Each structure stands twice: as structure tokens, then as C-alpha cells.
User: Fold this.
Amino acid sequence: MSTVPGGRVRAGEGLAASPAQPSASSPRHSGLVLAVIVGCQLMVGVDSSVVTIALPDIRGALDLSTGGLAWVQNAYTLAFGGLLLLGGRSGDIIGRRRAFCAGISVFTLASLLGGVASDGWILISARALQGVGAALAAPSAMVLIATLFSGTARVRALGVSSAVTGVGGALGMLLGGLLTDLSSWRLVFFINLPIGVVILLAAPRVLPETPRRSSGFDFAGAVLGTLGLTALVFGLIRAGSDGWHDTLMLAPLGAAVVLFVAFVLAEERVPNPLVPLRLLTDRLRAGAFISLATLVGGMFGGFFFLTQYFQQNLGYGPLKAGAAFLPIVGTQFVVLRFAPRLLGRFGGRTLVMTGAFLMTTAMLWLTAIDPHQGYATGLLGPFLLYGGGAGLTVMPLNVVILGSVRPEDSGAAAGVAQTVLWSGATIGTSIMVTVFDATAGTDRHASLDGFAATFVTGACFGAIALLIALFTLRSARAPG
Assistant:
């Protein structure tokens, strides 16, 4: 990736153009192309959180136990996180548009199944199928941006995509509260149907198909990588619900370590690996991956506990709890409008460090929350900082990750990026749940000490990202 003195990444430089479009800045009908792609990102981002606020109503309607209710969330996370690497590489084999449309089809049908579910096991199965569809579609959406756009147009497209992905979690809280409060929890699934149908109708007309790569498929890597990720996500889910001392959590995490070691050894020996190890050994990309994981971990963990705080400590209903996240969504959208211009002027390292600092400050501010404070005095300030920080970090990190990969590695890079993002969310939330359980005392639902400790943990995630950006994103490279 091209840099200027001091390690600044200039917008549009080092972003390898697609071989089919070496000089074009954007495809024909670029607005429609981007709308179709970010429609997918919106569904995936929103679905990561839209069900959360509806869980109490789902429990009552389907008579679910506490464990069964947890798996309404966990089934999606497990399938999505476990299959992302495989989904990213599948598009290289069958074509990006085919993989994208297949994923959207599965996701849309699974949403319909979830909306009409009459029993808990049907809903949990539908959530798992949603995860499968998202794992197939999300990496292809990211790669389509990298291959169909070039130069500054790609930076702008990544900015829009990052905005939609970044605010999807918070927007899901708002939609979940609105739909549940005004009508029924079933609408949190049915809301995906019109979006999915529109995308499926438009995609074959506006998205060109990318070339298929006829090279051999890395079967061993696919099996080891998928099993390793599934074991990791399952172990983290178990740790988040039962604590890190749970013996049943240690087995899957131990298996994940063994499987990942075998995965690395296998990838070194095949000519066309599922994940080329050069993607992980590059200093810039490795730093971007770690920064992305830690920032997203703090973000989604924070959303999880803020939702509890609103409903349990402040007595907010679903709609009001969802609307409370609007300052984060709005500020992030505003900042992301200027992020491409700021990237060209100040460089990726400066933006990521500034954003991480703002997010860390916001988390530290949230440690002082008190139910006796009003929303404007206690929460609005940190929410504005947090939205601004998120807007400054996500897009530059995506530019770094996709900006210097070879065209043949774009699918793998997108799969790794999505895996890092959603695994980071699971890891961060699990760690923050453990911290809360250890500090909340007997009154777990109302403990301000528990909330304060979790937000300190979130601040540590932001500080780690800031330090990683300081020491890795400053690497300078020769232009071109």
C-alpha cells in the first residue's frame, strides 16, 4: 500500500484495481451496484442485534428455557462465525455474484422460517440457517466492492459499506425495539423479506459476475478451518454464558487451538490454500486485523450491556431502549461522510488512533453512569464520542485490509476480515460478560459496579487498538 512520509495511507493509493477495470473508478450504475451490496451488509449487521431486544417476547411466546433463549442468539453466531472462511473462499470457486445471491437466498428463506416458527427448535434452526447465508454472502459483498470499484471510488464505497456495517448493530437495537413494541417479535424476522427479495431481483441485473478460479479447492484447509472456528466460537459462547471457569468450555477451546495449528501446517503445504498465510504475516494487515477485532469486541460488548442497563436499571421499554442508541448511529453516519476525505489528508494511522482514543474515552465516561442522571447529562456525551470514534476507524481498517492484496487473494482476505470482525464481537462480549459476573455481586441485574467494570474492559479494548495502530500502521512502503 502506498504511503507518504510518516506512514500515512493516501486514499486511493495502493488499492489494487481489478484486472478487468485497471483504470475505471467505478462500475456502470455504480449507485445501484453499491445499494445492492450494502443492502446485504445492512441485513447482516442489523440481524446481529435486532433479535436481542425481542428476546423477552420470544421467550414468552415459544415457552423457551433460559438455555434455549440463549441459543436463539448463539445458533446464528456459531454458524456465521464458523463458516466465514469457507464462505469467503467459495465465491472464488463459483463466482462472487453466485455466492452472494446464494447467501441472500438462504438468509431470506431462513428469515421467513424464523418469522413463522411455532416452536423453539424451529426458530433456533432458522437462526442457524441465517448464519449460513450470512457467512456466504457477507465476504462476497466485501470482495465485490474491491473488484468492481477502484481508486478513490473504492475508498468511498468502502466508507459507505463500513457505515452500514458499523451502525447495523445499533440500528438493529432501534428496529428491534420499534417492531416489538408496536407489533410483534415476528416482524424482526419478516423485516428481512422485502430487503432480500429486492436484492435478489436486482443483483443479476446490476452485478457483473467475477471470474471463477479453477484452481484446486483446499479441502483439508476448509475442514480444519471451519471446525477450528466453530470450536472457538462455541467455547467463547460457553464462556460468556457460564464463565471461564466452566470445564465444558475448556474442551472446545483446546480443540480450537489444536485445529488451528493443524490448519496452519496444512496451509503451508497446499498450492491454493483456503487462507494464504501471507495475508496474516503482513505487518499492516495484521495490525488492522487486531485493531478491528478489539474495537468491535468493545463495541458489541458495550451494546449488549447498555441494552440491559436501559431496560433493567432505567426501566426503558423496547422502543425507548432502541431509540437511545440513535446518537451513536447518527454521529457515525455523519463522520463517515467525511472519512474518505480525512483519510486522504491525514492517513489511516491518524484516523484509527483518533477514533480508538474517542472510543476509549467514551467507555471510561460510561463507567460513571448512574440511574439518577438524565440521559442528556449521563449518556449523550459518551454516545456522541463513541459514534464519532467508530466512524473514524472501521473504513480505514477495511482499506488497509483490502488495499494491497493480490486479486486472487481478495476472497480469502474478505473472509478473514469478516471472521475477525464477528469473532472479535463474540470474544469481546464473552470477556465483558465474565467481568460483569465477577464484579456485579448478588444483585447482578442492577449492579452499577458490574457495569462500570465492563466499561473499563471496553476501554482496555480501545486502548489496545490505539497501541496496535501506533506500532503497526506506521509502516512505510514505496509507492505502487
In short: Residues 28-217+272-472 form a domain with the Growth Hormone; Chain: A; fold (CATH 1.20.1250.20). Residues 231 and 252 are 5 Å apart (CA to CA). The two ends are 7 Å apart (CA to CA).
